[in-house]
Specification:
By secondary structure, this protein is mainly α. It is built from 4 helices and 2 strands, in the order ααβαβα.
Length: 93
């Protein structure tokens, strides 16, 4: 057989859910951008919005190793970046 695929850059469909998308762009005490995060964000370069988001995701993955037990649910993103390790919530923050 033959399978035809289409690259959607990770976007699989329209937003679904009860929370409006603007809510996810709000800063919280855990996601506040300090010097480290601003510097990291400055490395993503040019491209479409999705290309820059993918570059940011890759940059985070390179700088924050996934290591269970190194952070907790109350660890700010700036601290996880300084530690160079964390878990899933640190990558998403």
């Amino acid at each position: 057989g033959e399978v035809t695929t289409h690259d959607t850059a990770g976007v699989t469909g329209p937003h679904q859910g009860y929370a409006p998308l603007w809510l996810f762009a709000q800063q919280t005490p855990l996601t506040a951008a300090g010097k480290g995060i601003r510097e990291l964000a400055g490395t993503v370069g040019q491209g479409t919005e999705i290309e820059r988001l993918h570059a940011l995701m890759g940059a985070i993955r390179e700088r924050v190793a996934y290591r269970p037990g190194t952070t907790s649910v109350v660890t700010p993103a700036e601290e996880a970046l300084a530690l160079k390790s964390g878990v899933c919530q640190d990558h998403s923050h």
